[in-house]
Amino acid sequence: MDRFYMLMPLFARLQNKCLVLTIEGQTSQIRHYS
After folding, report:
1. How far apart (Å, rounded) are the C-alpha atoms in residues 10 and 30?
2. Full-prediction pTM beyond 0.70?
3. What percent of the chain has pLDDT over 70?
């Protein structure tokens, strides 16, 4: 259980990175098409 709690912040960071990447990708696509 302790290991799980230690890994949680790592998963959160990975999710945040994925979110930022997808948002950046969408904004760059919008800029490209407009």
Report:
1. 30
2. no
3. 91
